[in-house]
Design goal:
The protein has about 600 residues and is of the alpha+beta class. It has helices spanning about 1-60, 60-65, 70-75, 80-100, 135-140, 180-190, 220-230, 285-400, 405-430, 445-460, 480-500, 530-535, 555-565, and strands at about 100-105, 110-115, 145-150, 155-165, 170-180, 195-200, 205, 215, 240, 245-250, 255-260, 265-275, 280-285, 440, 465-470, 475-480, 505-515, 515-525, 570-575, 580-585. The protein starts with a helix and ends in a 10-residue tail after the last strand. The chain binds adenosine-5'-diphosphate (ADP).
């Protein structure tokens, strides 16, 4: 469907281009013909003017010369040879003077009495011209003129004639004058125009192309032929009709006919009638050289059009190629984007896998922690339970023996063991602390005082001394006072454990504000934390202490409490020996509420 439409479009386009070229050709050739017509008209005007001028020069001469006395005398006494000879002489001289072809005198019967060409072999003398219309007209008192081919000389000429009258006005004879047309015709030659002159019957008698002479431009009827024969206008010359095709176009009248060599040609034709002579003058201008520049212009136009079409075709082609390249680029981009999306999906999948693995690991860690906790708990609980059972057995025996004071002692031991188990339970409850309690503004000095009071018994039993060094301008911090105290007691107890039994049992407690934070450090002079276990001491149930002495929960709980405060708990070894625990606390912001 689309292809069909496209070829239709191209067909219409090609037809349009052809029509355009044809239109331009038509306009160009019309212009050329119009210009040719104008030029032919100009030439025609000049030709007619010069022809009329030439004829007018001789028109009045026969009448003027007819008044000459010698002529009248000769007509009155035609038998006087001396008079005739003198007249011949006079006619010859006058003929030379006025530059006519022949000058001669005819009597009323039409016979020539005297002539300027008396000396020539083909002299007119004795010839009878009574059949010539110029003679008949002059004999009737009119001025005659006639164009004809000389019957005697075979030379074309134009004849003027005038009656010769005596004093009474009686017509005695006719004075005739012939002028040649060869010279005029010769002056037309060698020009781009063809000029031809036809008589009233349409016979060409003057022509720049000799091939057209004595031929009829109009079809010759019998009447015309009879008239021509009677006047012997063309002597014995055979007359034929030319094959002429007349074409009327807008800007010019065209004639199509064969030239002298027989070649068919087309001419722009203009014509004008010379009424007095009865002639029709035509100027013909060959259209072939006229149309050549027009054709050249059309060719140039077509070429230009072709170049323009070619250029636009190239342009379209280029644009199509560019669009193709852009499409390829877009496809490549889309492909790249698809690959990226695929990779991203792969990554997401891998991430998901990682998360799952991590979750699995955490789960495994939890299970391991649960295992460790079970082992520690069962040990911590089984031991006192077994001991309590032994004490209870002994107490039973002692009661049987009525040794009540010792039985009571045993029951006291059982109570101590129960207390110990209660302490373990309390620890466990702390593990299950509530982490999301809201943070409050805490006064560090108060918390420190309370914590030292709680830890005092343990510090004393380990023989440790505490040196406090607190900055005077300690700001309020964010946290919970009870939980912070728990952390401090824990860290101080660990410090007491670390220095117990060593020589230097000083514990340094310091607090310094540091930007947005407050750093609280507890330094002991014990063995320090071995690097191998430094990052494990905050794990739940990690302990290096003997079973029964530590659950390994203190630092784990403390660490989590500090994280709940948006702070931190860090461990390092002092260069001079001993562990340094740093409680990082945040300055209380406007958000925090007043004390817990
Ligand atoms: P516990 O005290 O029950 O062992 P903690 O979580 O409080 O549990 O401590 C974990 C471990 O960290 C201890 O077993 C000990 O090895 C180490 N530790 C804690 N404080 C100190 C300290 N001040 N000096 C040396 N080691 C310490």
């Amino acid at each position: 469907m689309l292809g069909w439409f496209k070829s239709l479009w191209w067909g219409a386009f090609a037809a349009g281009v052809v029509l355009l070229v044809l239109g331009v050709e038509r306009i160009a050739s019309r212009n050329a013909l119009a210009e040719g017509h104008d030029r032919a008209e100009t030439t025609l005007r000049q030709t007619v003017n010069s022809l009329e001028g030439h004829l007018r020069r001789f028109e009045a001469l026969p009448a003027l010369l007819a008044r000459n006395q010698n002529i009248r005398d000769a007509l009155e006494t035609p038998q006087d040879p001396a008079r005739i000879a003198a007249l011949n002489q006079w006619l010859d001289e006058t003929n030379a003077l006025i530059e006519s072809s022949d000058l001669y005198l005819i009597d009323l019967s039409g016979t020539t009495l005297a002539a300027s060409n008396y000396a020539r072999k083909d002299s007119f003398i004795g010839q009878n011209f009574s059949y010539r219309p110029y003679f008949t007209a002059a004999r009737e008192g009119k001025s005659g003129h006639f164009y004809a081919l000389g019957t005697t000389s075979g030379v074309r000429g134009y004849y003027f004639a005038s009656p010769v009258r005596d004093d009474a006005g009686q017509i005695l004879g006719v004075l005739a004058l012939k002028i040649g047309v060869d010279e005029i015709e010769a002056s037309w030659a060698a020009r781009e125009y063809q000029i031809l002159v036809t008589d009233p019957e349409g016979i060409v008698f003057m022509s720049t192309d000799p091939g057209w002479l004595y031929q009829g431009l109009l079809p010759l009827g019998r009447d015309q032929l009879a008239r021509i024969t009677a006047s012997r206008r063309y002597a014995d010359q055979a007359l034929t009709a030319l094959e002429v095709q007349s074409i009327e176009t807008g800007p010019a009248h065209l004639l199509r006919l064969a030239d002298g060599t027989g070649e068919d040609r087309e001419y722009v034709a203009t014509e004008r009638v010379m009424p007095q002579a009865g002639w029709t003058v035509r100027v013909l201008l060959d259209t072939a050289p006229l149309k050549a520049p027009a054709r050249l212009a059309v060719l140039a136009f077509a070429l230009l059009l072709l170049v323009a079409l070619l250029l636009s075709w190239l342009f379209l082609q280029r644009r199509a190629r560019l669009a193709e390249r852009l499409a390829i680029q877009a496809a490549a981009r889309a492909d790249l984007e698809r690959q990226v999306a695929e990779r991203t999906a792969d990554l997401t999948r891998a991430n998901d896998d990682l998360h799952r693995t991590q979750a699995d690991l955490v789960q495994a860690g939890k299970l391991a922690a649960l295992g460790r906790m079970s082992a520690a708990l069962s040990h911590e609980i089984n031991q006192p339970l077994a001991a309590a059972r032994n004490y209870a057995d002994s107490a039973g025996l002692l009661i049987d023996r009525a040794d009540l004071p010792r039985a009571k002692e045993n029951i006291g031991q059982i109570l101590a063991l129960i207390d110990r188990m209660a302490a373990i339970a309390r620890h466990l409850r702390n593990v299950a602390r509530k982490p999301n309690e809201p943070l409050k503004t805490v006064d560090l000095n108060a918390v420190l005082t309370d914590a030292l009071a709680v830890a005092q018994a343990r510090l004393d039993s380990a023989g440790a001394t505490v040196e406090t060094d607190l900055a005077a301008d300690l700001p309020m911090v964010q946290g919970g006072p009870v939980r912070l105290q728990q952390v401090l007691v824990n860290v101080l107890s660990n410090a007491a454990d670390a220095v117990e039994g060593t020589t230097d049992r000083r514990i340094a407690l310091a607090a310094r504000p540091l930007g947005d934070e407050v750093h609280l450090t507890v330094r002991d002079r014990g063995p320090g934390v071995a690097p191998a276990i430094a990052d494990r001491i905050f794990d739940p149930f990690f302990t290096t202490k003997q079973v029964g002495s530590g659950l390994g929960l203190g630092l784990s709980i403390s660490y989590n409490i500090m994280k709940d405060f948006e702070g931190d708990l860090r461990v390092a070894n002092h260069p001079e020996g001993g562990a340094v625990f740093t409680l990082v606390l945040r300055r209380a912001g406007p958000k925090a509420l007043a004390a817990e």
